[in-house]
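Researcher: Go.
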Amino acid sequence: MKKILLVSVLLLILLTSLSAQTGREIMQNVIDAQKVNSSAMDIQMTLVDNDGDTSTRRIQTLILNDNDLTKTITLFLEPASVRNTRFLTVENDGRADDQWIFLPSLRKVKRIAAGEKDGSFMGSDFSYSDMGSSGSSVEDSTQTVLREEKYNGRNSFVVESIPNAGTDNNYGKYITWVDKSSWLTLKVEFYSKDGKTQIKELNSENIVKENSHWVAKKITMETLESGHKTILEIKQVKYDIPLNPGYFTTTFLETGRAK
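Model: Structure:
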């Protein structure tokens, strides 16, 4: 009887060790779960100030995987004050993303410099770096599993990510709640460069499966000091569709035409 009990305990320990995942493995799973060959999303962006007043924008985002590197273009469709604004991010291997924006009022393409990437993207609570692909690698941070817990009724890992010294990052620390079943991020706390003060918080809601891909249909980013929020609601999404590579160029940014 004692021998059977001992074998059972050893087996339990073995299974536990096999199922345990490191913070690095968990965050790599998050990245892998978000990868698609291509996608097109119609999104409603709502800006909410601390008095509850809102302004709404309609945008379209196209994503293309090119040799395992991501290209993303965002087009503002409504209202008229921002219509035809276009924003392009191109992920690079081993260095920071390239980013450009076309503002109709200036009638020219502007490159986003490294020192500008912590600035607000079109008045939202997302910075230019938040809109990039820089988080698509686990190489530049050290990840630690803090605990496992339920968040909004979903079993999750809680992982702390601290950017490595010398890396180009606008935050000093991230704490991420990762859904165990979909590998989507349920919540992210963003901390100041010294890692001590939480400055923003992202929450994901309405997690569903669309064409074999998990997606959060509603994402809210809040700047804690001001109370200002940005809500992104995905109204429609299509995956793995043909996309003209010409959309992901500075020529398209300037002309609105893809060759």
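Model: Residues 2-19 form the longest helix (18 residues).
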